[in-house]
Amino acid sequence: MYKILEPIQVGPMQLRNRVMYLAMAKGLSTPDNFITDRQIAYYENYAKNHVGLIVTGACITFPDYPSKLPMQPGIYDDKFIPGMKKLVDAVHSHGSKFLFQPWHPGITAYGCDATEVKAVADFSLEEIKELQNTFVQGAIRAQKAGADGVEVHIAHNYLLEQFLTPLFNKRTDEYGAQNMENGLRFTTELIGMIKKACGAGFAVTTKINGNDFNPEGMTAEKAAKAGPILEAAGADMISVSAGGGLTNILGMSADGRSPEGWKVPLAEAVKKSGVKIPVMATGSLRHPEYVEQVLAEGRCDMIGMGRGLLAEPEWVVKLEQGREREMHHCISCMHCMNPVLPGVSGCTVNPLALRELEDIVLKEDGKERKVAIAGGGPAGLEAAVTLAKRGFVPVIFEKKPEVGGMELIGSVPDGKSKLKWHIEYFRNEVERLGIQVNAGKEADGDDIAALDPYAVFVCTGSNPVIPGSIPGIKLPNVKEVRDILADFPEGKGKQVVIVGAGLVGLECGATYASRGNKVTIIDMLPPSDPAATSTEQMLAMGHAMAAGIDIRMKHKLLEITQDAVKAENLETGESVSIPADEVVLSMGVSANNGLYNTIKDRFDRIYNIGDSDKTGLIAEAVQSAFDTAAALD
Prior knowledge:
With 633 residues, the protein is an alpha/beta fold. It contains 21 helices and 27 strands.
């Protein structure tokens, strides 16, 4: 038996296993902070799938404070208790435990100007007591709703962490950061107040940072000092995280550049401090074999997953049933950080994420009817797997020697290797379900007709946009970005110009730069409005800038020569020449719908899926494929 599946005692709570769903602010409440049916279905799904402990994301506790996250659950008024209770009861009905997370952002400004928030030093002693009492009232409401406890959030650069270190705390009184005891005084007093108000049967767990990426902030050594102090104050568990919006946002939720379990050493430092209460590790934990090793080595007592469970809510159940190879692991793509509308998946690899209220159940009515699938990329593979689960017999035609499509190529740039985890999932499922794959075979209408298929799914992806009117665009030193990623060139010291500052161009540029090349990226568009830019795009731009890439927006490509790129600065009208040993075209894509248009009148049930219909993200292609395959009748 896996150690991760063993029960564990956390204060007054007996947990069925050692897995915790971590707090994520998914914005599923109403605008005025009431719990919704969609929210209940979301959390209940984790309980149905045997997650031992579940906690909400940041609960609105101080409604009059200018900084707050939108559409989060409120615990600042008794009017919220009925909805809170409905949520708790739903989770409890499946045997899981549930915590609320009272929250104050401090100087982290959400939806307000930075001048409107208050620093730690700005709170009087009287205001500190008022803050503590308000936190306690939130905990009391959680208890009245039947919750098993609360998580005291001392991490991610929010108010309680801002008391901990000189990085944020400039006070000189007993709540100053002269030492860890004083820095934690607000928190230790709060733990005692909650224990007194709610009794010994109500759990108070804590969450701290082990790294703020700044020597004045939290470090593993400081977290180790904090552990025994929190335990002495009455904390029932310590979860260890890192970063935050004020120090390093990727420390809180890492992208693909951070390896699996990168925060485990931070939890290990707290564990080695000698505390007897459970210590929980976090940090891109995905694979059962890795998690089991961490627990077996005594580096922590529990593991926490947020995005890992969003991607695979059945993680625990599949582990219990020996179905590890059926797990689709989070690839740290950051897509889930983008706003999500109802009916749209919030995860690249899980087309049902945040759609739990729809209660989609695959009908097993395929009756071994054949379905031809043209294209073995993410859309074609998702369609095939979904259809096979329904009892259809999908047959894939893939023109390349192996399946994976653009996701396989997309795994090449620095920080993108986790995309291979998604491809591995598909390959495992193709093998398990016995799906026929005709690799190295580009399907045509006659190939498909020879199957006499019940339905046809066209998932042929996209074509690169290459404007033939640009002088020099066919020179031997000019390559399309897909060709570069398919066989990334070795060598350093080259001058590389990339045309196109989209996601792929930025990622390709950062990879060139990391290998010792001088990179310039040009794009005729103006800089993107951050409010309208995806998380993935913003992070890629940040990585490119950090790599020292010269990014020139509002520059239009005019001509390519054997040793330079000529462009027009659209702001000044000036013509510029940029030295270039290699030129990479990343100018966007268009739908590869030729096959669909050729054969659409030959078959009664034919569907154009993914980029071959409408170019977009992998997440959009996967959901489109799943939804179409699930609805086929």
